[in-house]
Amino acid sequence: MRLSDLRPCDKCGGKIAPSFYVLRFSIALFNRNATNQVLGMAQVMVGNLGLAEMFSPDSDDAVTVAMDSKQHKILMDEVFLCQSCYMRPINLAELAEKVNTRKEEQDEEQT
After folding, report:
1. pTM, whole model, 2 decimals?
2. pLDDT digits (tens, 9 = 90+) for 22-71
């Protein structure tokens, strides 16, 4: 991470020095065809999911986590938290919305 990518705490707006937390999270989606292949094979193999995954051709694609895929990376959220905010209860959805709104405002200013 570059120093130019740093920003204040996303919850309180305070300093993040000397150490801080970066939370990265994203949506995960089921691939219906791959999931059905694995579950169908598991039925044939009397519920042995591990064996079913070995024999299903698309088992690695049954669930797509957006931040693991370069094409879906835009669906990942990244939140910076100072040490004191990390120890308090937080609403991740609210915080992610705040960060995304700020990003949109910055993009509009640049254009």
Report:
1. 0.70
2. 999 888 889 999 999 999 999 999 999 999 999 999 888 898 888 776 66
Q: Please report, for the chain, the start and end positions of each structural domain, with discontinuous segments joined by +.
A: 3-110
State the sign of the Cα–Cα–Cα–Cα dihedral 27, 73, 88, 11: negative
The residue among 33, 51, 30 whose CA lies nearest residue 41 is: 51
Quote the Cα angle for 13-67-29, to 5°: 120
Q: What is the pLDDT of residues 87-102, one digit of tens each?
A: 999 999 999 999 889 8
